[in-house]
Amino acid sequence: MAEKDKEPKKHNEKSKTSRLRRNTREASLIQLRQRFREEFCRKMSEWAKACGTPLSADTPESRSEREQFAKAWSLVHGYIVKSNALWRLLYAGEELRKTPCPLHKGRWSGVGEDPGCGCWSYGNITGWLAEQPDNPDAPRPPVMLVRLKS
C-alpha cells in the first residue's frame, strides 16, 4: 500500500514540473512578442525620422519629398500614439473589432468605467464590441490625459 501511495505523488510532481515548464515557456513567448512589438514601433519611428531628415546631397525635388514625408509622418504618428485600437492590435494581441456597439455606434466615447455594453477595453469606451475578452497578460496601455472641448 505504501508503494502505491508514492506513485501518484511522483506522477503529480512530474505533471507539476511539466506545467511549470509550459508556463515558463508561455511567459517567455509573451515577453519576446512584447519586446518585438516595442522594437518594431521604435524602428518605425527611427526609419521615419531618417526619411524625413534633409540631407546635404538632396536635390530640390528630394528635399521637397522629404519635407512632405515628414509632414505626413507627423500626422500619422499623431494618430498612432492616440489610437487605443492600434495599441490593442499590437500589444494586447486583439483582432480588429468588427461589430459596432449598439449604444456607442462605433465611436470612441472616452476613458472611464465599464458602461457594461461590451465595448469597454483597458479603460477606453471603444465603441466596438470585443470579439474576445481582454487579455489579462497584456501590458496596460499608457495613460493619456485628454482635454475635451465643452
Determine the N-to-C terminus distance: 78 Å
Total of domains:
2
Cα-atom radius of gyration: 24 Å
Q: Overall 3D geometry?
A: flat
Structural class: mainly alpha
> What oligomeric arrangement do these chains adopt?
single chain
Query: Taking all residues together, what is the mean pLDDT?
Result: 80
Strand order, sheet with most strands: 1-4
Query: Portion of residues in helices?
Result: 40-55%
- N-to-C order of helices and strands: HHHEEEE
Query: What is the makeup of the main sheet?
Result: 2 strands, antiparallel
Per-chain topology:
Blueprint (H helix, E strand, L loop, with lengths): L1 H51 L7 H23 L1 H7 L8 E2 L19 E2 L2 E2 L2 E2 L21
Antiparallel strand pairs: 1-4, 2-3
Task: Provide structural commentary.
- Helix content is 54%, strand content 5%.
- With 150 residues, the chain is mainly alpha-helical.
- It has 2 domains: 2-82; 97-150, no CATH class.
- It has a two-stranded antiparallel ribbon. It has a two-stranded antiparallel sheet with strand order 2-3.
- The longest helix is centred in the N-terminal third of the chain and has 51 residues, at 2-52.
- It is flat, with a radius of gyration of 24 Å.
- The mean pLDDT is 80.
